[in-house]
Amino acid sequence: MMIGDALIVSAILFCIGVVGVLTRRNAIILFMCVELMLNAVNLSFVAFAKLHGVGGHVFVIMVMTIAAAEAAVGLAIVISVFRHFGAVDLQNLKLLRR
Amino acid sequence: MTPFYRFQFYLFALMAIGAALLFVTRKSPVSAALWLVNVMFALSGLYVMLDAPFVAAVQVLVYAGAIMVVFVFVVMLLNLGRPDQLPDLREAGARIAAGVVGLALFANLLAVRRESLPGVELAPATDNVVTPVAESLFTEYLLAFELTSILLLVAIVGAVVLAKKRAGA
Question: Nearest CA of chain A to the CA of B14: how many Å?
Answer without folding.
Answer: 9
